[in-house]
Amino acid sequence: MINNLKNQFEKIDPSFKEVIQGSFAAFTLRVTGTLLVFGVNAYIARELGPHDAGIYFLAMTIITISSQIGRLGLGNSIVRFIASFSAVANWKAVKGIFVRSLQFIIIGTILLTLLLFFLVPNISISIFNKRELIHPLTFMLLLIVPTAIAIHLGEALRGLKKISKAILIQNVSIPVLVLIGLLVFGTAVDIEKLIKIYIAAVTTTAVLGFLLWNKTTPQLKGIKPVFHTAELLDTSKSIFIVSIMYMIILWASTIIMGIYYDNDQVGIFSIAIRTAHLMSFVITSIDAIAAPKIAILYHTQKHSELVRMVKKITRLIVVISLPVLLAFLLYPGLIMSVFGSQYSQGQSVLQILVIGYFVSICTGPVGVLLMMSGNERFLRNITMLTAAINIILCFVLIPRYGIVGAAYATSVCMTIEKILSLLVIRWKLKFWTFPFSICRA
């Protein structure tokens, strides 16, 4: 039987086999990171309660969006270019991409941090009418630069196919260090202490990222980098817009909830959407391995191999995600009760959101496929349209239906974005990502 399974595995086409082999360690780390994030959120929700959790997560959402803006859309460009250049051992170009993109990110995030420092009072009072947001948001500005650097280092490692190291930096290190900090403080945790712990965790992770990058790339030492600045910026322009639009699709509902509702409602919704976001751990784990492989297969014109790999990836994602979907749909009360009895009204919100996540998961790695195949402009247009729809739906539904309206707005827009991306892939790349026989290429 073991020999039979081994023979079946050997028959798998090489590209998909590489994804499977790389996915096991990456998936294990990603699951670990997901459980740690869940644990951190549960601890925060219980210790702070809905009111203070609402302030904390609203401020963290603003910082997350700001860090994404400061990265200038360079994330997927780094993966794409480093994967392509390292495949042909062009290490001078690899070093050039890494150094130049890091310079842009550091400058961009520092300038953004300084700008936001002066805008925090207006953001807190004029937009959200929450004076209590001023101090935590100001303090959290210190997270923008190290967060962007840590993510950048993870993306660079992804480009070299060092997926486990990338996930360690992007998904595991920070929650581990935050949990350690929380355990040290015990039950005496308030928003200020929590922010201090988070700043220490993110800064430490950025330093760890540099150490891993230097250890992984000894071939870069002593060589003069060759810069491809114009090409890097040209590609990143569209991806920058895409990344901001993704932030709007995912987090606009939290921001607009903060405008219309009190901190308790924002806290409940924040916990529900962050819990639902755990659904994406499967596709992000596999995307991390698949992205550089998709770039290589596309640019070496191995179309049939690319089609087979993408379809098998989609099937794998759906099969693994289905049990998670069922757990969230059947036991939403049990899951939300982990965060405290005050969060029980978020049950229906969680169910609505996970349905949207699952529908988007069923389309497969459409976003990565469009970006790695040079079709980022189409993805940009799709995400701009979807983000606009999301904002409109949020302003229409949230004032009337509250957290349930916010959930519907987010879920509907995630679905629209993925379906439109799927149609563009069919048009430009001539195949469906669906693995099912009714959707043949």
Account of the 3D structure:
- There is one protein chain.
- The chain has 441 residues and is mostly helical.
- It is 83% helix and 0% strand.
- α2 crosses α11, α3 runs antiparallel to α4 and α4 (91-127) runs antiparallel to α6 (144-159).
Average pLDDT level: 81
Proportion of residues in β-strands: under 5%
Straight-line distance between termini:
34 Å
> How many beta-strand runs?
0
Structurally, the number of domains stands at 1
Structural class: mainly alpha
Radius of gyration from the alpha-carbon trace, in angstroms: 21 Å
Helix share bin: over 70%
Succession of helices and strands: HHHHHHHHHHHHHHHH
Described by strand count, sense and barrel closure, the largest sheet is: none
Described by its quaternary structure, the protein is single chain
Uncertain runs are 1-11
Helix count equals 16
Instruction: Write down the overall geometry.
Output: globular
Topology:
Layout: H1 2-11, H2 14-70, H3 74-87, H4 91-127, H5 134-140, H6 144-159, H7 163-185, H8 191-216, H9 229-260, H10 263-276, H11 281-299, H12 303-330, H13 332-337, H14 347-361, H15 366-372, H16 376-429
Name some characteristics of this structure:
0% strand; mainly alpha; disordered N terminus; single chain; 441 residues; 16 helices; 83% helix
Quick overview of this protein structure:
The protein has helices spanning 2-11, 14-70, 74-87, 91-127, 134-140, 144-159, 163-185, 191-216, 229-260, 263-276, 281-299, 303-330, 332-337, 347-361, 366-372, 376-429. By secondary structure, it is mainly alpha-helical.
